[in-house]
Design goal:
Length: 385
């Protein structure tokens, strides 16, 4: 038979329990829970009192009030200890209890004496004992079955945890709309890094990017988007940074090795986004897309954009006469970010001379556009127009 008590309610819902006799105590030792804390009057015979903590709680989580309840109860249930003042009560986690075959019934030792704490009980406090006794319930539990049920639940939880972990590990990244130029910044970074990914097509020409299901993923209705499990990121250059950072330990280090190199990579990524890309985008829209959509090309915009782009490329020429790549003598995201739209420039836009006429820019373009990763991307995910 086991006696169950409720600790002071203001401390939370805690059960304190003790066995009927030393035989019952043996069962309690055998089928205890990792959350159980064992109490005993030091150097005197006493009941074995247990406090069942909540899952995940440990020794240090016992509040002063609950500790006092347990110490009072164990003192009151010691024939000798109940009669004297100033008794010491020892307590330790159930897992620290050591029981060997040679020990007598009711005898117990500790694996680690450092895990045993002592609390001094000056005198019996009847108010505490009476309060605890009012909550007393007797049961004859099947301790072994209870323990086995908990073991089974823990095993199931561990299995579930493992399944989820495996699922997460197996989960491949998904990139939306790999065929379009902005998306290819992300795609080429994935390929450079040797990261497995899946693709989902979004037909911009049919306006699929404005459908509510897509807006739920990308509120601006733009591509690309990268989905990584529960995580989602948009803006092509942000995606590049995310991939390069997450998979830093594999493939080429596309962010630079030092803080100074990283600074240069960021600087040239910004140059691409704010100085190189806008005039090149204007050329792409007016020369490649306008005719497709039956719109007139704006010749003034074309002229001004070419002039602006030429000025930017002159700065690139100077930079690339000093370094092999934009951010230094190492290939980086800053270079890769240029690939998709420069492919339009030397291809459908028909202005390859802007690159070829600049010796260092031309050498740089040859190098980056001949990288295996880019070749794979431009072949596998050929531009739709
Ligand atoms: N700054 C964004 C630009 C994205 C962007 O403009 N994507 C274009 C395709 S290259 C798009 O989604 N256009 C569809 C639309 O505007 O409806 C990025 O780099 O990700």
């Amino acid at each position: 038979m086991v006696f169950y008590f409720k600790a002071r309610p203001d401390a939370g819902d805690y059960t304190i329990f003790m066995g009927l006799d030393k035989f019952e105590n043996e069962e309690l030792i055998k089928y205890g829970f990792p959350e159980d804390v064992w109490f005993h009057v030091d150097k005197m015979s006493s009941a074995h009192v247990y406090l069942r903590l909540h899952k995940g709680q440990g020794f240090d989580d016992i509040s002063e009030g609950v500790l006092e309840d347990c110490a009072q109860l164990v003192k009151a249930n010691s024939i000798q200890g109940n009669k004297v003042n100033n008794v010491d009560v020892v307590y330790t986690p159930w897992s620290n209890l050591k029981k060997t075959a040679s020990m007598d019934v009711g005898q117990v030792g500790f694996h680690n004496s450092k895990m045993v704490r002592t609390i001094r009980v000056e005198k019996r406090v009847n108010e505490i004992i009476n309060r605890l006794n009012k909550t007393k319930v007797e049961r004859t539990p099947d301790l072994r079955a209870e323990r086995e049920a908990v073991n089974a639940a823990e095993r199931a939880e561990r299995k579930q945890h493992l399944r989820e972990k495996k699922k997460k590990e197996k989960m491949v990244l998904t990139i939306y709309a790999p065929l379009f130029a902005s998306s290819k910044r992300a795609v080429v970074t994935l390929v450079e890094k040797g990261v497995e990914f899946e693709t989902v097509n979004v037909d911009l020409l049919k306006g699929e990017q404005r459908q509510p299901e897509y807006i739920a993923i990308q509120p601006f209705g733009k591509i690309p988007v990268l989905v990584d499990g529960d995580y989602k990121i948009f803006e092509s250059r942000a995606i590049m940074r995310y991939i390069a950072e997450k998979y830093r330990s594999q493939g080429p280090d596309l962010l630079g090795k030092t803080i100074e190199e990283r600074g240069q990579v960021e600087q040239w990524l910004d140059v691409e986004a704010t100085s190189y890309h806008p005039p090149l985008l204007a050329l792409t829209l007016n020369i490649v897309f306008a005719p497709l959509m039956g719109l007139p090309a704006d010749e003034k915009v074309i002229k001004e954009s070419e002039e602006k782009l030429a000025e930017v490329l002159d700065v690139y020429e100077a930079q690339l006469s000093k370094n092999e790549y934009l951010a230094g003598d190492f290939v980086s995201l800053a270079d890769l970010a240029h690939l998709p739209f420069t492919e339009y420039l030397v291809g459908a836009i028909g202005k390859a001379y802007m690159i070829k006429d600049r010796k260092h820019v031309s050498a740089w373009w040859d190098k980056i556009s001949n990288r295996a990763a880019w070749k794979e991307v431009s072949e596998k995910y050929a531009l739709p127009v």
